[in-house]
Amino acid sequence: MSTKETIDFRKQVVEEVLEIYPEKAKKNRRQHIAVKDSECASCAVKSNAKTVPGIMTARGCAYAGAKGVVWGPVKDIVHISHGPVGCGYYSWGNRRNLAEGEIGVDNFVPFLFTSDFQESDIIYGGDKKLEKIIHEVVDLFPNAKGVSVLSECPVGLIGDDIESVARRMSEELELPVIPVRCEGFRGISQSLGHHIANDAIRDHLLGKGPAREIGPYDIGIIGDYNIGGDAWASKKILEEMGLKVVNIWTGDSTMEMLQNGHLVKLNLIHCFRSMNYIAKHMEETYGTPWMEFNFFGPTKIKESILKIAAQFDASIMEKALKVIEKYEPQMQKVIEKYRPRLDKKTVMLYVGGLRPRHIVGAYEDLGMEVIGTGYEFAHNEDYEKTIPALKEGTLIYDDVTALELEEFVKKLKPDLVGSGIKEKYVFEKMGLPFRQMHSWDYSGPYHGYEGFPIFAKDMDMAINSPTWKSIKAPWSK
Amino acid sequence: MSHMKTSTKATKDWLNTLEYREKNFAREKLVINPAKACQPLGALLCALGIEGSLPFVHGSQGCAAYFRSTLSRHYREPVAAVSDSMTEDSAVFGGQSNLIEGLKNANALYSPKVIAMFTSCMAEVIGDDIKAYLGNAKEQEAIPKDLPVALANTPSFKGSHITGYDTMLKGLVECLATARQEDKINDRLYVVPGFDTYTANLREYKRLLKVMDTPYTLLPDQSDVLDAPNLGTYELYPGGTSITEMNDALNAASFLCLQTYSTPTTRKYLASKEVPVESISMPIGIAGTDKFIESIAKFTGKDVPEEITLERGRSIDAMTDSHQYIHGKKFALFGDPDVLIGLVSFLLEMGGEPVHIVCTNSTPLFKKAMESLLASSPYGQGSTLYAGKDLWHLRSLLVTDPVDMLIGDSHGKWAARDANIPLVRVGFPITDRVNLHRYPIIGYSGVINLITMIVNTFLEEKDRTSSDPYFEMMR
User: Of residues B63, B79, B114, B125, which has the active-site annotation?
Assistant: First the structure.
């Protein structure tokens, strides 16, 4: 098919899939789907809008964004899931954000702390209970550097004043107690939860840490949640370049890292969507510069290394070039091994945060093509950044519904689908190779030079697994 | 000022002391690592077991995402559910417009045979009347008048996943079953597995009922939904109890509930409709399974087939073959009430000592039942049930009063590691091992499977830790 034919075909597919909806829902969904064409007239997809009720969405809630993503990986703070047991339970231990430290002493990442609301708490309010809970936390975990209170739906609905509880307890205990108003009903997805979480860091922690000299090469990584050790892989490259990673937000993070996030020469932001608010705030308030980077796949890693090094002196640039020189041959070997097995294979992605655009280059390094991509909870600027990275004819879908994605996959027939746990088994039942691209499917890291060989191996494993060949019984027609 | 700074090492050691245990048990409000989830998750699991049933969460979409992810992680299967995505404006104006639009879209997109609607916190706190809203939805022709929609109020601030299961089950029967008519009583035993996350248990029930020549309906039946074959196509509704059998449920000859604590609301409802209903503990272990077999035999009026006696004999043979590896061993357990009764009963039969038993979603009735079970055996004399306690309490117990093995779900792995003992995974969720839900833990074959898991874990430990002279061929 020529590019023109591909574009026309995919536009036709979109129209066909939209036919399944009742009128109102169809009108809504049409605004969220586009095919990239030369004029790009249809590239503008609407985003950050309410989900259509009654459909299967992959989206979560503000609590998921605030606790599950941003606050959860801060290891030396006790995070209280304030409200009924469920939200804390389901966000417990499932994001694979690794952290070092003594569990129960200065690392609380593998824990679920909950106020386990009962009916009486709904009737009488949970503020008194929260006070008692914070006292108990401090008694049982004396090394905790602080307490965060992450509110679930009922807390906001019944009008509890967690802010004043937090203020009182902070004073009494001489310990930061941070209220995070991330009730799940706020906003339309996880996205508002990220923003709320960033605001809580801004209001309660940033600039309040112990004084620290800023070294000439001190930098922070923002928006790397250390899934399967990602942040450690990124840190390794940056430190080989001669830079000093003093903060990571929020993978393997500490209270002090949050407090002193502005005390760096440069902040490097990986997941723009979840952390741009605080990066911009640090720039506006403290003059701390920031830039985006992408550590997926050797092409993007190289681009990013050079861009980062250009912010520093010649000695850093020299080391940066050495890093590239050292690792590129290794990466070339990875490509030589896997490219013949993956060349021309097509991928459809549906993820959150940064991945629908950042990973495109890593696939291209392996000779693969992303033919469809979209975000769960993006804003316009995410699509503005994404569209230039895509080939013509790429299908772009925002908050794609389960049924749309299934239909798109059936019609575009990619060799690989990359999305989340809720989507994984749907496509595997169709006999289609799949990788969980939120969590690296029990593997990782995928970031950095350490991650790319694992990424390549995993994609090869998924696509070329002999198991797919056994699906059809020899006696079935 | 109670906040004391101590060194990491000192605190680490302190966590393992009796002093800490006392402090830990003195806490009144803080819950740390509870072994319970919330009601709607149980409602969703229940709803999946009915043919063509679409679970519908009236509330925040994030809840639906969490339930689906959690169940998918355990089963490694797709889990379908929609929500009506309530947000701030629903908090102000109520969720009726979302519910009506949601029903309309869900019906158009997914053509369900029945919609199983249940609530999450938000709708409950603002006091949405789902029954009235549903009436209005049908009035406005958002969905056909004859499309059944089962309702369940399942706020997360009451009960746990097992009560949510129960409430949804009652809602489904209430919605789908026609009134009991004395001249239309069918010959079937309606068997309710309860909140059971082993697809193999459900298949095993069906096999045993077939062997015992029992006309039966398993209700609900998620076995084909959450253990669907890979045939190269995705089915949205791959199985479940048929609608016809649901329609006929109140005309059942009798109901048999195979869990006591996840079915009381349903039982009460059935009894109010004058349907004969019996409940027994989950048939784990010999005595539990015997009870199950006897209940079936009583229902059919037929002798227990030889095949079952032989099967029982084989599991007894496995018990006598391997009792020496379990006898006198000390265990800690945590999980749901019915699973715990079954596991404890099994361990006592093997001469094992269930020393610490933690049940976060305990009830007074369960406490009484567990205590009387423990009192009935010499091996239960040193046992304590910790009702309403969590896995951080359990950790204190394990490090101050050591046992040989922990039995529970994957969340127990940290406590087991701190206590340097193996964890044998039984319960829900199991997210760090594969296929365990594909091996039954109920029935006589369940006895053999439990022995296999427990004994071989002990033997593996022995091999892994023994010095050269004691590294033997025969164990």
Answer: B125
CB A95 within 8 A of CB A75: no
Instruction: Tell me A223's DSSP state.
Output: S
Using an 8 Å Cβ cutoff, are A442 and A449 in contact?
A: no
| Predicted confidence (pLDDT) per residue in A417-443, tens digit | 999 999 999 999 999 999 999 999 999
Q: Residue for token digits 């304030």?
A: A82
- B468 in helix, strand or coil? helix
pLDDT at res. A42: 61
Nearest CA in chain A to B13: A105
- Alpha helix ranges (H) inside A227-367: 230-240, 255-259, 272-286, 298-309, 314-342, 355-358, 360-365
**CA A298 to each of CA A334, A366, A367, A371, A451: distance values in angstroms, whole numbers, following the listed order:** 10, 10, 13, 21, 10
pLDDT of residue B169: 98
Residue A418 phi, psi (nearest 5): -120, 115
The residue-averaged pLDDT of B237-244 equals: 98
What are the structure tokens assigned to B442, written together?
Answer: 């109920």
Specify whether the CB–CB gap between A223 and A270 falls below 8 A.
yes
Cα separation of A89 and B23, whole Å? 24
Answer whether A89 sits within 8 Å of B11, measured CB to CB: no
How does pLDDT run across B181-217, given as a tens digit for each residue? 999 999 999 999 999 999 999 999 999 999 999 999 9
**Residues 6 or more apart in contact with residue B165 via CB below 8 angstroms:** B42, B43, B45, B46, B194, B195, B262
Establish whether B79 is a catalytic residue: no
A173/B105 Cβ within 8 A: no
Buried/exposed code over A426-447 (b: 16+ C-beta within 10 A; e: otherwise): bbbbbbbbbbbbbbbbebbbbb
Contacts of A287 (CB under 8 A, 6+ apart): none
Residue B236 in tokens = 């949205």
N-to-C CA span, chain B:
57
**Given the residues B57, B92, B121, B211, the one annotated as active site:** B121
* Res B3 pLDDT > 60: no
Q: Which residue in A34, A58, A64, A362 is the catalytic one? A: A64
Q: Could you tell me if B33 lies within 8 Å of chain A, comparing CB atoms? A: yes
CA dist A427 and A434 (Å) reads 7
Shortest CA distance to A302 belongs to which of A288, A282, A322, A274?
A: A322
In tens, the pLDDT along A40-61 reads: 766 789 999 999 999 999 999 9
Residues B290-335 have pLDDT tens digits of 999 999 999 999 999 999 999 999 999 999 999 999 999 999 999 9
Report how far residue A166's alpha carbon sits from residue A172's, in angstroms, rounded to the nearest whole number: 10
Are B332 and B394 in contact, with CB atoms under 8 Å apart? Answer: yes
Active site residue A49: no
The whole-number average pLDDT for the span A80-93 is 98
Task: Collect all residues of chain B within an 8 Å Cβ-Cβ radius of residue A20.
Answer: 108-109
Half-sphere exposure of B94 (CA within 13 A, CB side): 9
Contact B12 A102 (CB under 8 A): yes
Query: How open is the CA angle B276-B282-B288, to the nearest 5 degrees?
Result: 100
8 A C-beta contact, residue A73 and residue A250? yes
Residue B238 has a pLDDT of: 97
**DSSP code of residue A69:** I
Cβ <8 Å between B66 and A90:
yes
* Structural tokens at position A103: 């569990």
Burial class (CB in 10 A: 0-12, 13-18, 19+), B384: middle
Taking the CA atoms of A80, A81, A86 and A87 in sequence, report the sign of the dihedral they define: negative
Q: Using the 8-state DSSP alphabet, how is residue B301 labeled?
A: -
The answer, yes or no, to whether residue B1 has pLDDT greater than 50, is: no
**Please, what sign has the CA dihedral across residues A53, A54, A55, A56?**
positive
